[in-house]
Amino acid sequence: MLCVVYRSRRKADTFVYLPQGKDFSELPETLTQAFGQPEQVMTINLAKRKQLARLSVDELQQHLADPGYYLQMPESVENLLNTLPKTAANKESK
Fold it and tell me: Which end of the chain is less congested by CB atoms within 10 angstroms, N or C?
């Protein structure tokens, strides 16, 4: 199975995976509006892969079967200021 990956130009580190042959316009309207103009970045042959960066090929194929796409959002980013000790944060603000 071939899978086409699109990157959002509007949302950083956001991708949509679609089975080859499925048109981006078939996605829910709320998703396409938030995603913006898609940019195709690659085609993946899932038969030659077992694992992707964030999920297994089996999990991806389940998403491609229902609901028909996989939306990859950015991982949450930790605010490094929250890791500073309270006293260090207070010294920085003075």
Answer: C
| Nearest Cα residue to 61 out of 51, 75, 73, 76 | 51
Tokens 């899978």 identify what position?
Answer: 3
Question: CA 92 to CA 82: how far, in whole Å?
Answer: 13
Amino acid identity at 82: N
Number of folded domains in the chain?
1
List of the chain residues with pLDDT < 50: 89
| Euclidean distance between CA atoms 4 and 29, whole angstroms | 19
What CATH number is attached to the domain comprising 60?
A: 3.10.510.20
Phi and psi, residue 20, nearest 5°: -55, 135
